[in-house]
Design a protein that fits this description.
Elements lengths: L7 H17 L4 H7 L3 H17 L8 H6 L7 H18 L2 H23 L5
Helix pairs in contact: 1-2, 1-3, 1-5, 5-6
The structure holds protoporphyrin IX containing FE.
Protoporphyrin IX containing FE (HEM) binds next to helix 2, helix 3, helix 4, helix 5 and helix 6.
Length: about 120
């Protein structure tokens, strides 16, 4: 797990830097900029999310699948690749190699399960 080499205090600056890049990205930027009206709140929520995921802090309570489903019409598997590339670049730039690798592996897992939920769920 990531607990030993990621500090809580690293996560806020990491999340801020990541979403700055996302907002400036030609493909991802418009989706986020249209959807998110309170950026300080989004950045706080995503910092809590990563704290919960990597440090088991329990700080995030939410429904990521439902949140992304709202934007299903604009989100494609290719955009997930783009998201993961920006996450890789940002974590490589800001974190130690061990922490970056753990954050990248976790993001890839979550991206996979979000995509399964969004695009490949069988009709019930
Ligand atoms: C929220 C877009 C991938 C984690 C959001 C929102 C958008 C968005 C527009 C705001 C939803 C709303 O309230 O209207 C995208 C796009 C992605 C992507 C375009 C890739 C193509 C990911 C991945 C993760 C993630 C891979 C996790 C590793 C979250 C979380 C929230 C969120 C935790 C907050 C959900 C809540 O409101 O509790 N995303 N996302 N997203 N995203 Fe993503």
């Amino acid at each position: 797990n990531g607990v030993s080499h990621i500090r809580e205090s690293d996560l806020g600056p990491l999340v801020d830097a990541f979403y700055a890049r996302v907002r400036g990205d030609a493909a991802l930027g418009p989706i986020f900029n249209d959807a998110i009206h309170d950026w300080p709140d989004h950045l706080k929520k995503l910092t809590a999310f990563w704290s919960s995921v990597m440090l088991a802090s329990g700080r995030y309570k939410g429904q990521p699948v439902a949140a992304h489903m709202k934007h299903k019409a604009r989100i494609t598997p290719e955009l997930f690749d783009r998201w993961l590339l920006l996450w890789k670049e940002t974590t490589d730039d800001l974190m130690t190699p061990k922490a970056a690798a753990a954050l990248q592996a976790k993001a890839a897992q979550i991206a996979e399960s979000l995509q399964l939920a969004m695009f490949f769920r069988l009709p019930s």
